[in-house]
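Table S7 (text form). Paired inputs.
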Amino acid sequence: VTSALSSPCASLYLVGMEEQLLPRGGYIALSVIMAGVSVMAIILNATVIAVTLRHRQLQQPLNYALVNLAVADLGAALCGGVPAALSNALGYHAGGWAGCVLEGFSVALFGIAALCSIALIAVERLLVVAKPLGGIRFRRIHAVLGVALSWLWSLLWNMPPLFGWGEYELEGVRTSCGPNWRSRDPSTVSYIICYFLLCFAVPFAMIVVSYSWLIWTIRQVARVGCVRRGAAAKAESKVTWMVVAMVLAFLASWLPYATLAFTVVFDPQIKISSVVAMIPVYMAKSSTIYNPLIYIFMNKQFQRYAIPFLLCGKNPWPPEEEESEAPTVLSSNRKASV
């Protein structure tokens, strides 16, 4: 931690604070946007956590990763979105250099934990539906271990900048902080390469492989007649659309940020203005809203309890007969076919 606070970036912090890269109106607009995103993210993710704690029906092992995702997104909104809204309102980063390091570490910790949770959700659904490990049943201990691994992996790769391998610095229009991917120092470059390969590429590969396998399994089960054709088509359509939404949200949130970072790392001569670099930063921050909407409220169980919770007991949609999720339907049919 002492190494991070005495980093060369610390001496550049005051210079960065003096730079006004946007007109005053631009900073105010960013502040309003981030305030809106943060408030919505806090409400949505807190709702997921609250309804899970209130209803035992939701406290199932398969939902642990969903709740873990909500916890990570809530942390990212509180530690990243709220400070960004305040700093933009002031026109400069308000936390000082120590606050910048703390913000960079916290946002990165929660952000990577969220990405790992998304990958964990994909893998767990694959395990329940396709059963690639044979007769091993997905249990509470597996869910707990998966959640613990997501935090340990995030902590493992976000601690190094606090001890000298990599750095946190002002980014975008100098009102938020994150990993320093502009540095030409070999140590920092090596950290950024490892960081994005292991904390972005690996989770993304897990998501693509798991959901591709999942859709293929659904089609195979439908083809051999293990479920009724209509039910199979409905389950396949539901899972397919959810997968498309998940992958698109993941790419929209994180691919621009990862692409920009890798472009700067591998082509040091490229000139990217701070205003342009700001866009991927705030797109990544917006994932705290996408995740609960897609991963949670497309889940019938959560939707049944979350909507009345948000609307003070009112539900604008008429109650529907509960539909089994695709993993449950397919899992039970696969067992019956054995």
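Next pair, protein 2 of 2.
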Amino acid sequence: MKGNTVPVLVLVGEYDLALTEEVMRATWQAWYPNCRIVTLRGSGHYPPHETPVAFATEAEAFLRV
């Protein structure tokens, strides 16, 4: 799968101490060159529950492209 050009969106919680933006760059972005990483402000490990509007907004914008 390395080098797969499928567009990927990774949403990271600003306060997630385990799955940080840095970790996502080293993992997801290393495998998927078209990976877009967005940090959701005010969220921890569960962005869909903690910041649902921001989560949905980013997901919808990504799917529109």
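The helical segments are 21-26, 28-31, 47-50, 52-64.
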